[in-house]
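Fresh eyes needed here. Have a critical look at this protein's tokenised backbone.
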Amino acid sequence: MSVQPVLIDGDWRESAGDDTFQAVNPATKQPLTDEFPVSPWSEVEEVLQAADVAFATVRGWSGERFAAFLDAYADAIEARIDAIVDLAHQETGLPVEPRLKNVELPRTTNQLRQAAAATRDGSWVNATIDTATGIRSQLAAIGPVAVFGPNNFPLAFNSIAGGDFAAAVAAGNPVIAKGHSSHPGTTKLLAEAAHEAVQATDMPSGFVQLIYRTSHEDGAKLVSHPSLGATGYTGSRQAGMVLKEAADRVGKPIYLELSSINPVFILPGALSERGDALADEFTSSCLMGAGQFCTNPGIVVLKASDETDRFVEAVAAGFAKTPPGTLLSGGVEQNFRAGIVALQRAGAEIVTGNEPADGDRFCYANTLLKVTGDQFIKNPHGLQEEAFGNASLFVIASDDEQLARVAEQFEGNLTGCFYTDRNGSDDELYDRLAPIVRHRVGRLLNDKMPTGVAVSPAMNHGGPFPATGHPGFTAVGIPASITRFAMLQSYDNIRPHRLPSTLQDKNPDNMWRKIDGEWSQQDIT
């Protein structure tokens, strides 16, 4: 049994920490062979110092330098596809195909290449030039960025390869990756590819670094350290709020993706028109990946009727006959059960499930719960407890007025969805409810389940608290996601040759700039 090294300042070396941990295969409940270190604060400080030196080196570099690294990194990941997806499968229980090999890994390399294209183009910096006053401004790198990745996307949201990583690098920042304890081996393989790309593109030694775990106290010290520019975090609300408190205390930006139950409203006309098909569609979406998506439809709002009763029965039957998926870890299973208990205590009734399933793996029965609209309105906070996994709560409202009152109780979410009929009978009710929900979600959908998150420039993978820590950012979608890890820099009466190339009169690479109120790709004459 070997203890794996950490990546600090360009060297793979033995950790100074005494404590170790192992990943566990959730499909067998058996620990995997390798041990990984818990880094002490002295080691975290070394990482911060190396990142600070790297930032001083790359500050002011052209976007092409960072683009070359991101492209080389994507190539290096693809050269290791089989090893990466095999170990990710062992550490998470997620299927090799299609999930890891055909969906998540291509998404990961696509994100890196999209970030490369954006930083190479340069328009993301929002260069703004006022020739009358001699003032010019743009976004620029903020400094070393710490990235805390989640358990449920070992590749596309990984701390050393995912969307936050790609955005931070595209903005010109070194990255300190804090691996997730559920898939440390996968993270190490990705870090090896990143290290290879760093060397191949002549990046500074401290540009990409990896530690696997710290104490909670040291995690809070990391996000609040004077040398750190910003933090990207995806994970539980409880842990995220501890980090946010530490970062806020010293004014350090921290971008959090926390919890979301993603309400789905199925209006009466849609239910009458295609109820059976919607039951199948919902069941498939909710149970996909054992429900372990941040956009999983965790709550469904319907109006009481005979069609609604049949819909609930159809979904319950679908839940009962579908084999439950493997949960990511023992902790996820424990928290999932606790979430269901919390919903019951808040008044929810079990329709189906809520029992142990396969004891040889981390697993729990597909669980459907329901409450009345009255119950939800009386205890909206308790009934919005996230049960992260293969479960959902149905809220049955008595009438249109109560549907609106239910909508008004929702906390911030990543998504909100409406299903309506095709002949227009739901339009009036939609027009009443959608503005209420629109204000409470980052992404509004019609006639489409929220589970998929496209890597599109128009995507918003964010939303009001508690979905995220701030409603004005997205964790997915380039170039918007890049701007989280940037600062606005203004230049007033600076001599032309001292300006960044992006703000000089000659336009580098035909990037878009706002000159005297007009967007232009032209030089200033």
Q: What stands out?
A: The chain has two domains: 6-13+35-126+139-258, 263-446. The longest strand covers residues 135-141. The two ends are 67 Å apart (CA to CA).
